[in-house]
Amino acid sequence: xxxxxxxxxxxxxxxxxxxxxxxxxxxxxxxxxxxxxxxxxxxxxxxxxxxxxxxxxxxxxxxxxxxxxxxxxxxxxxxxxxxxxxxxxxxxxxxxxxxxxxxxxxxxxxxxxxxxxxxxxxxxxxxxxxxxxxxxxxxxxxxxxxxxxxxxxxxxxxxxxxxxxxxxxxxxx
Length: 173
Description:
The chain contains 2 helices and 7 strands; from the N terminus they run αβαββββββ. It is of the alpha+beta class. The chain has one domain (14-168). The chain has a 4-stranded antiparallel β-sheet with strand order 3-2-4-5, with no helix packed on it.
């Protein structure tokens, strides 16, 4: 007597499908975690680069007009520090500011930096070019707190710098 040949099965078993889905979920988690890290590092690097660019803009102004952009300060000695009021300094660097920048030189790219705006009672960041004259700022690592670049001009040593709170941007990794 002849035994029937076993039927060949096509397709995957439920166990195989579940295993493939689990592997894909693990790989997706790893990839998204890496992308989040890259985004955080890129944001920190952008803040660092902007601070260097703004420092260069201060020196370019100093070279052009033989004085530092001091905002509303009348000090001639010592150190000037601007934080929430750093817009006083950066507004002098705008090409459209004919009083402080009579040659109309754009010392920095206003489309690459941000300032604060009030929107429905909440502070939000907008491009400096859209709302010039305000303070130049950035978001903290958790993207919840607006922070201001710190401008320090040492009139005695004839130096200037733009800094930020690096501990808020780096995880230490």
